[in-house]
Specification:
The protein is of the alpha+beta class. Helix content is 35%, strand content 13%.
Length: 103
Amino acid sequence: MNCGTFEIQRIARAVKDVLSTFPQPECASCGASMLELHLSGDAYRCKACGAAVCVICGCTQERACEGGCSWAGVGFCSTHVNQLDEALARIARPHQARLSAVR
C-alpha cells in the first residue's frame, strides 16, 4: 500500500466515526432511507429520487441543513467539516504512529 491508500483509509474511518454519532439519515428531499446510495459524478445520490445527498445527515441541495450549508466535499456538507476535522485529528496517520514508536 502507498501513502495515498493509508490517507483514504484514514478519511474513511473519520467519516465512519462521525456517522456513528448520527441516527441513520434519510434523504431530506424524499425521506428515503440512505442505506443504498450510488456515486454519480461528484456526488452520492439517493437511489429513490436522484438528489445529491450528504452521507452524514441526508441534506440535499434543495433541502439544506438548518441555517444553511454547502458542499464541502464529495458526500458531505459544510455543517460537518469541524466534526470530520476532529475525527481526523484523533486518528493517527500510520507513518506518524510508526515514527513515534521508534523514538
